[in-house]
Design brief:
The complex is a heterodimer of chains A (709) and B (277). Chain A has 25 helices and 6 strands. Chain A has 709 residues and is mainly alpha-helical. Chain A starts with 18 loop residues before the first helix and ends with a helix. Chain B contains 11 helices and 10 strands. Chain B has a 6-stranded mixed sheet with strand order 6-7-8-3-9-10, with helices on both faces. In chain B, strands 2-1-4-5 form a 4-stranded antiparallel sheet. The radius of gyration of chain B is 20 Å and the shape is globular. Chains A and B meet through α1 and α7 of A and β1, α1, β4, β5 and α2 of B.
């Protein structure tokens, strides 16, 4: 680009980063967007009227369906009894009729019973009973018995044991046959010689059939929630992006001195809020409908709608809303008109329904890689919650992955929103959105870094969960560094290359000062003592039951390390060193530099540490999340102080070598306390390391960050 | 106040083609000056204004407002500019007052100052009587007045007006003209694009005539008259925009390259010709 002549040389400014100002501006943006959206009748229609009308209608439909399926036989005009032949039917009916007559004679005052029996011919009694075509199957046994001189005709009664109606009709028939038998026996008393009579008896053959696997109603609810959350979020998302452009207000909005990411975030909060309000209205209407219609027992495993379940569902709705608001904004930001946005949203809605429908499949479980499949994981978690089968581990993976995806989608939306190619579409082409920038940049944009993170996350999970876990110890040791190189190394390298990010500043590959480097080494040598002692204390005292075994994943990981140490120590050491370097390259290099160029130390260090912890949460459980987040914060602080990724690499590599290579051999478990002398010595060295980093380095100024080398 | 230096913009079109919308454009506008950027449709006027504001990234060259380059310090530039694009819309469900105060907020103007400015602008642009009306009930002229007020609510030193009288009736156009004169009197630097050349003649102090992204000629009305020999902007515009460049290409092939020669060939007498040079 041509430089300006000297009289045009622009004034260089460094804007102070004032969070209160940003927050106040964001709240003003959101307030305006909300007031505009909520004054629109269409929003009110989707927000309130739709759920109020739809849920009662759905409840009626469900009730009809379930009552029809469970009580179908009850509603038939008579109890249906299947008999294999006309002759048997006649014999049986005559006996039954006789029994009825006896009953009426004995009870002339009682009204005639409403129970009516309809005999039908059945060639395959077993099948007809199983399929529910008949309540009861009766077949006469060929061999007739004798009781004294009397002949006994035995009918075999085949029925479904679980069917209440079958029991009812069976009891009725037994009573009538007994009356008929009694009548014969009594009438014989008056006949000289007391001739023999024919008696009828039933031999019961109860059948139990495996109930067919039904679609759980609990699995149907997430599908409804998806639909209703989308319904709430679609209109504001279109209106605040494509609609704004169509009305001609987008250009004046982006002409204001507010960063586009800020504008988009304001819109995201608005869409999210409307989606949540819609979801709440839905939830409330749904619960009222369930309780008032008595269908709660059909939906919830325990039959009760507890406060905890409501809170869990509410949390899920927030997740749904967070995900959909981001997805919808990304899509509608790319649209140039209301109509175009609607066309784009249709595929998203269809795509969203797919996991909703898949969630209804009884065989599909929330485990393994399924836990990180967007949307399907939330649907399955919702289903498990309704059915009382959800686990905390699976839920945490679903929540973390969904939040990460939402952030990544939002990052894509930020790239699209207000972009030249969308805003001034008459002059631009779509390819401009993904064109390599002409000028190199010092750091990756936050949007690109988060997008990279969102790609790394599921790949990491799939690799770790599906491939590496199945391998032998040696295979795992070899696959671990290769996988790390691919994920934490190659992904950001490709992103940085495509966006012309300068390697030195974009990955914080600056040479550290002596103090920073030595501080990193000292911390690497000593930090493990505090980390392990902290974990042991946590396990012993914070977890309520003393001696609670480690979470299964953590214990497996520890055991795997022990096995690896015993068999392949050098390879293990190389693998953990490589792993540490790769993780630093990404978390304190590429991602950290992008965060740093957009925010202050708290957000940069805290954000990178949390993301670092999340990765370990997924791979090794809750305790690993805690320890990794703390370690991530320390590594982040060093990266901030030294403006270099190198001291963190020293620290992390040494830390991993000690934990992975040495400690697994001497320590029997995380709950074992280290000797306090070790801890005291460790603390002294940690303090020395911190002091060296603090005194031996100066964070780069905002000016230097804005105008890097 | 406004500096444009060798500004170019090339748009890449689907299919691999490209369009040079602005070609090596340079000019300056001082405080208290109204600069008319004129040209036919597609000449690059709006693209130039958008680049000055930082909404479009220049392919080469730079634009600066009060010393701040739009590519390096877009927020500083935006803070100093009041932008009135052609066909700008309003937030339909907000009232006029809410709409203007929202933008004042975005520009960091305090509530108290914004309210005082709102009162002043309502008086100046005559929208006191519909200040509390929702924007979707306003007529075209009323909407444009609100938009002009929106661009001025944060008291910017620079105004970029892209066809501000587009679609307005005589009375509304007169309000806009008075508004621009008011801006000039207040010492603001104004760039105005318009197809109403008579209006431009009355309002603008200097003119730049664009054709196919290039600044064909620039100067005050007197300077333009002298160099083109055309008495009115309309005639200059017609000669330069429609006939001039096409003819210039033809003449270039014939070895005649100067604009003046082309203009003479197109019909107007140049001052030099009149003087007999």
């Amino acid at each position: 680009m041509d430089p300006l002549p000297s009289r045009f040389v622009p004034i260089s400014v460094t804007q102070p980063r004032r969070w209160p100002t940003h927050v106040a501006r964001l709240s003003r943006l959101v307030r305006k967007e909300l007031s505009e959206i909520l004054r629109d009748r269409r929003t009110i229609l989707t927000l309130v009227l739709m759920p109020v009308l739809i849920y009662p209608l759905l409840a009626i439909a469900f009730q009809q369906h379930f009552l029809a399926s469970t009580l179908a036989l009850r509603k038939q005009p008579a109890y249906v009894i299947g008999l294999p032949s006309e002759q048997e039917s006649l014999i049986f009916q005559s006996q039954l009729e006789l029994g009825d007559n006896v009953y009426r004679q004995r009870n002339p005052d009682k009204p005639k019973q409403a129970l009516t029996i309809e005999p039908v011919l059945s060639t395959d009694i077993e099948r007809d009973v199983k399929d529910g075509r008949i309540h009861l199957g009766l077949r006469g046994l060929p061999r007739r018995g004798k009781v004294g001189q009397d002949e006994v005709v035995v009918f075999e009664a085949v029925y479904k044991e679980s069917l209440g109606a079958a029991q009812e009709v069976l009891e009725h028939i037994e009573r009538r046959l007994a009356m008929a038998n009694e009548f014969f026996l009594r009438s014989r008393l008056n006949v000289p010689g007391r001739p023999p009579v024919r008696l009828f008896r039933l031999r019961l053959v109860p059948k139990t059939y495996e109930a067919p696997q039904r679609v759980s109603l609990g699995a149907l609810i997430p599908l409804i929630l998806i639909l209703m959350t989308i319904t709430g979020a679609v209109y504001p998302a279109i209106d605040l992006t494509a609609g704004e452009r169509e009305r001609g207000t987008m250009e004046i909005l982006v002409a204001a001195p507010v960063p586009r990411l800020g504008l988009l975030f304001g819109k995201y909060v608005t869409v999210f809020t409307v989606a949540v309000i819609t979801a709440l209205v839905n939830l409330l209407t749904m619960l009222v409908t369930l309780i008032s219609s008595g269908m709660g027992a059909l939906v919830f495993a325990a039959g009760d709608i507890s406060f905890l379940v409501i809170i869990e569902i509410l949390g899920l709705l927030l997740l749904f809303a967070a995900f959909f608001s981001a997805a919808l904004l990304a899509i509608t930001s790319a649209a140039r008109s209301f109509k175009e946005a609607q066309a784009y949203i249709i595929p998203l809605m269809l795509l969203s329904l797919t996991p909703g429908v898949m969630g209804m499949l009884p065989g599909l479980k929330l485990e393994g890689s399924v836990r990180v499949i967007p949307l399907l994981n939330i649907v399955l978690l919702a289903r498990d919650l309704f059915e009382g089968q959800a686990t905390a581990a699976a839920a945490s993976v679903v929540v973390v992955s969904t939040l990460l995806y939402s952030i990544a989608i939002l990052a894509v939306a930020a790239r699209i929103f207000g972009a030249e190619s969308v805003l001034f579409s008459e002059q631009r082409s779509w390819s401009d959105l993904w064109r390599r920038p002409p000028e190199p940049s010092a750091n990756s944009t936050l949007a690109n870094a988060l997008l990279c993170l969102a790609l790394v996350f599921p790949t990491f999970f799939v690799l770790q969960g599906s491939l590496i876990r199945e391998m032998s110890i040696l295979g795992r040791l070899l696959a671990m560094p290769l996988g790390s190189a691919l994920l934490f190394g190659l992904f950001p390298i490709i992103f940085a290359w495509w966006n012309r990010v300068t390697w030195r500043s974009g990955f914080q590959l600056r040479r550290p000062g002596i103090g920073g480097a030595c501080g990193g080494v000292l911390l690497g040598l000593s930090l493990w003592t505090l980390v392990l002692q902290g974990l042991a204390l946590w396990t012993l005292f914070v977890i309520p039951k003393h001696g609670t075994p480690l979470p299964e994943e953590h214990a497996q990981l520890l055991q795997a390390f022990r096995d690896a140490r015993n068999q392949h120590l050098p390879i293990l050491l190389l693998a953990v060193v490589f792993q540490a370097i790769a993780e630093e390259w990404f978390f304190r290099g590429y991602l950290f530099a992008a965060l740093r160029s957009n925010s202050g130390p708290w957000l940069t260090i805290g954000g990178s540490a949390l993301l670092f912890g999340f990765f370990h949460l997924v791979s090794a459980g809750g305790l690993a999340f805690l320890s990794s987040t703390i370690l991530g914060a320390i590594l982040g602080w060093i990266a901030w102080r030294t403006s270099s990724v190198v001291p963190g690499m020293f620290l992390h590599a040494i830390h991993n070598v000690i934990l992975g290579g040495v400690l697994t051999g001497v320590n029997t478990g995380v709950q074992d306390l280290l000797p306090w002398t070790w801890v005291a010595l460790g603390a002294v060295v940690v303090a020395a390391g911190i002091a060296l980093v603090q005194l031996g380095s100066t964070p780069r100024s905002a000016e230097a960050e804005l105008h890097p080398e | 106040m406004i500096q444009v230096h060798r500004l170019s913009k090339r748009f890449y079109l689907p299919g691999g083609d490209s369009l040079l919308a602005v070609d090596d454009l340079s000019f300056e506008v001082s405080a208290g000056e109204v600069y008319g950027l004129l040209g036919p449709n597609g000449a690059g006027k709006t693209t130039t204004l958008r680049m000055i504001l930082g909404l479009l990234t220049p392919t080469s060259g730079q634009a600066a407002i009060a010393g701040f380059a739009s590519s390096d310090s877009p927020d500083e530039v935006k803070r100093r500019v009041g932008w009135v694009p052609a066909n700008a819309g309003l937030y339909q469900t907000l009232s006029v007052g809410e709409f203007l105060l929202f933008f004042a907020d975005l520009y960091g103007t305090s509530r108290q100052e914004a309210k005082a400015e709102l009162k002043h602008l309502a008086n100046l642009l005559r929208f006191d009587d519909f200040l509390h009306q929702r924007c979707n009930t306003l007529s075209t002229g009323q909407r444009q007045r609100v938009n002009l007020a929106r661009a001025l609510i944060h008291r910017p030193p620079v105004m970029l007006l892209d066809e501000p009288t587009l679609g307005l009736d005589v009375i509304s156009s007169q309000v806009v003209r008075e508004y621009i004169q008011h801006l000039r009197d207040q010492g603001k630097a104004v760039i105005l694009t318009t197809h109403h050349l008579d209006e431009a003649e009355r309002i603008c102090g200097r003119f730049g005539l664009l054709h196919r992204g290039r600044l064909v000629i620039e100067g005050t009305l007197t300077q333009l008259r002298e160099s083109t020999g055309c008495p009115t902007l309309v005639e200059m515009f017609l000669k330069l925009s429609e006939v001039g460049p096409a003819l210039r290409n033809d003449l270039a092939h014939a070895g005649v390259a100067s604009v003046e020669t082309a203009i003479q060939a197109a019909g107007c007498q140049s001052s030099r010709s009149k003087r007999g040079d």
